[in-house]
Amino acid sequence: MSLTLKDIAQRVGGTVQGDDLVSITGINSLLEAGEGEISFLAGSRFKEQLGETRASALIVKEPTGLYGGPQVIVPNPYLAYARVATMFAPAIPRFSGISKEAVIEQGARLGNNVSIYPFVYVGKDAVVGNNVILFPGVYIGDRVTLGDETVIYPNVTVMSDCVIGREVIVHAGTVIGSDGFGFTKEGDVNVKIPQTGIVEIEDHVEIGANNAIDRAALGRTLIRRGVKTDNLVQIGHNVVVGENTIIVAQVGIAGSTTIGKGVVLGGQVGLVDHIEVGDGAMIGSKSGVVHSIPAGEVVSGIPTMPHRLWLRTRALIRKLPEYSERLKFLESKVRDLERQLKTR
Length: 344
Hints:
Helix content is 16%, strand content 28%. By secondary structure, it is α/β, with parallel strands linked by helices.
C-alpha cells in the first residue's frame, strides 16, 4: 500500500510543510524508519533522534528545523500516529469460510462472510453476526450472541447466553461468562450460590489477553461501549464498567462494583466489592480501593488517598527510621528536663 503525504495529511486533519507528493508505504519509529516510511515526534525527549532518522516524512505538532524533510503538522502527533498506523496495519488474517473441522451445533445462525477456523465450537442457538472472525480453539456457548465485525482470537471461551456487541475484539485466552465467585456458609462448609446471570459487552470494546469476566449472580455483568482492558484483568460478577474506561494490566474488580465513564485504573489496582468509582476518576498503579471514589478524583495508595498526599507520604516512609531515632532522642531529653524540674 502506498499513499502520498497529501492523502495522509487529509486523513489526519493536518497540513504539509514541504513536498506533499512524497510516497509513503509504512510507518516506523524515528530510529527504525527508512526510505518510504513516515515517523512522528510526540515529545521533546526524542528531539535528539531527529538528526539520525532516515524517515521520508515526519508527523509533528510544530515545524522543526532539526529535520530537513517534509512534515505533517497536526494538533496531536500521537493521535495522528495511531490513525496512520491503522492505515498501514496488516489486515487480520481470515480463514476462507467455515472450516470442516469446526463444530456448529443445531440452531446456530451464522451471518454473511464469517470466518471460522478449525477447532471452533459454536453452541446451540448461538447467533454469529456478519464478518465475524473466530480463531482456532474458540468456544462459543449455547445462545451466545456475537455482533457484526467482532474478532475473537484463539482459545477464547464465551459461556452460554452472553452477549457481545459489534466490532468487539477479544484477545487470546480470555474467558467471558465464567461463574462469579459466590458462596455462603453453612457451618464450616462453603455453599455455592448459582450464578445465573450473563455478561454483556457493548460495541467497540477491546478485551486484552487472559482476562476473566464473570457472569452475574443475577442480571448481568456489563462492559459498556468503548471500554479497553489490558491483559490479565479480573472483573467480578455484576460489575458495571462505564463507557470509554481504561483498565490496565492485573486490575482486579470485586463483585457489584460500579465504574463510571472515562475512568483510568492503573496497573495492579484492586477494588473491593459494592463501591462506586465516579466518572473521570483516575486511580494510580498498585492502589487498594476500599471505599467509593468521587467523580474526577485522582487517588493513589493503600488505602487510597489524594494522589499528591500519597506522593508526600511515600517520600516520608524512607525517613521513618531517622524520625524514629530523633523522636527517641527528643523523648529522652524531655524526661531529663522533667527530672531537673522536679529537683528544683
